[in-house]
Amino acid sequence: MQNAQELGRRFASVGALRFRDEAGALTVLDIDAPAASASLCLQGAQILTWTPRGQIREVVWQSNGARFAPAKSVRGGIPVCWPWFGPHAQPGLPAHGFARNLVWDLVDVAALADGAVRVVLHLDPRTLERSDLPGFDAVRAAWPNHWELALHATFGDTLSIELVTRNRGAAPFRVGEALHTYFRVGDIGQAQVIGLDGCEYVDKVGPEARRRQEGAVRFVGETDRVYRDRAASCVIDDPVLGRRIVVQKSASASTVVWTPWAEKAGKLGDLGSGAQGADAGWREMLCVETANALEDCVTVAPDAEHRLAVRVRVEPRIE
Q1: What is the mean pLDDT of the chain?
Q2: What 8-state DSSP symbol labels residue 103?
Q3: How many angstroms separate the CA atoms of 302 and 167, rounded?
Q4: Could you tell me which of 19, 97, 109, 138 has the fewest CB atoms within 10 Å of its CB?
């Protein structure tokens, strides 16, 4: 198990880093580099925050009501959903897979010439096999494949992430996945997502239904949609914070858009406070997820790899 003290010694030559322990067991890396500040939790390889220099507000959002606990995803940031997205067909298995519940190995941290910091993390079956988490015998039985998983993240003026799945076995396997990104917005009621016009989506609020998007995605209530067969970029247009968040992706055929709204946020209980009140943190976040879900899941052949990637940048909003 890598702890904050050990990692601090190992990467002492890389400036702008600080390692700390949360909840007595979870190691967090804080980055304060010339190009950006950020934080990342080794459990789940979960990026928690990212703020490029020049931005007053963070771009990747972490709830101020987030809880740190073993085998639990922290509310906000970028949880890694893998090797399935959403609920598993077999009851009792963890939603969104197991990668976000396990502690990854920090392989490398490097300061780059442009002021950014690059981080590489790794997960392999030995971590799953050693896990004594409740219910993980069923997880191992449900996912008996030979695999390796890596996450490459570069924190700078842009945020670049690559989730790399490698098949080390003799048989192909199928993967559902998502970089479940929580973005900071000024007010969910005024933000909109541009770039999904005309796209078919699966509406998961209420009885599941298939619909087609008309115009920009706007928000007036709980929204949970999987936009299918859509590899194009999209933009979060935010008039309150005066910026546009551009989400460019590759090897991703699904885009998931989610906001819980007030009632569901109250049930979740960890979305924290915001400018509009003690329980209004949900008004300041919006999930736009780079994914391969439902029919868009991918098959990885033996000795092959699949690279799910996203690149995020921020532009000023021009009226």
Answers
A1: 94
A2: B
A3: 5
A4: 138
Relative to beta strand 217-218, strand 285-292 is unpaired
For the question of residue 289 being annotated catalytic, the response is: yes
Predicted TM-score (pTM) of the model is 0.96
Q: For residue 150, what are its two tokens? A: 């890596």
User: In this structure, what token pair is assigned to residue 65?
Assistant: 């009501």
Catalytic residue among 88, 177, 180, 284: 180
Query: Per the residue annotation, which of 58, 162, 284, 289 is the catalytic one?
Result: 289
- Residue 41 structure tokens: 């939790």
Active site residue 122: no
52-to-3, 31, 140, 180, 310 alpha-carbon distances in Å: 27, 11, 39, 19, 16
Asked: is 4-316 a CATH 3.30.559.30 domain? The reply is no
As beta bridge partners, residue 272 has none
> In the predicted model, is pLDDT for residue 133 greater than 70?
no
Domain ranges of the chain: 4-316
What is the per-residue pLDDT across 14-54, written as a single tens digit (0 to 9) for each? Answer: 888 999 998 777 999 999 999 999 999 999 999 999 999 99
